[in-house]
């Protein structure tokens, strides 16, 4: 998979920021973005894959992410992002538990 176009200092800073400086979240976003990029016909991982991964993980609206917003540091509060990520995880866990009971 080709990632050469996105591996820039700006992108890596955005990834670190989007993951709230947590390596576990960085890894989770990498896995999600690479999974999206691996779906045919994509063979190149792009910023939009990371934006979608961020939305899936955080529960925020698609397209509104530190990967796509100019001046992203002014638009996102990392404490609130962590809260959103935790809420999103709780919803996913509840859905899995409900589905396994049926």
For the structure shown, list the relevant keywords.
globular, mainly alpha, 102 residues, 64% helix
Structural commentary:
It is a single chain. The protein has 102 residues and is mainly alpha-helical. The protein has one domain (9-101). It is built from five helices and no strands. α2 packs across α3. The longest helix has 24 residues, at 78-101. It is globular. It starts with 8 loop residues before the first helix and ends with a helix.
Query: How far is it from the N-terminal to the C-terminal residue, by CA?
Result: 39 Å
Mean pLDDT: 91
Count up the domains.
1
Shape: globular
What's the helical proportion of residues? 55-70%
Percent strand equals under 5%
Question: What is the string of SSEs from the N terminus onward?
Answer: HHHHH
Structural class: mainly alpha
Largest sheet data: none
Quaternary class: single chain
Query: Count of helices?
Result: 5
Count the strands? 0
Give the low-pLDDT segments. none
What is Rg?
Answer: 14 Å
């Amino acid at each position: 998979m080709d990632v050469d176009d996105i591996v820039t200092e700006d992108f890596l800073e955005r990834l670190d920021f989007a993951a709230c400086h947590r390596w576990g979240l960085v890894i989770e976003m990498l896995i999600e973005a690479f999974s999206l990029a691996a779906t045919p016909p994509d063979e190149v991982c792009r910023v939009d894959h990371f934006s979608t991964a961020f939305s899936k993980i955080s529960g925020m609206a698609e397209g509104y992410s530190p990967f796509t917003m100019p001046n992203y540091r002014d638009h996102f509060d990392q404490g609130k992002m962590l809260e959103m990520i935790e809420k999103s995880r709780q919803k996913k866990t509840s859905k899995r538990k409900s589905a396994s009971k049926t």
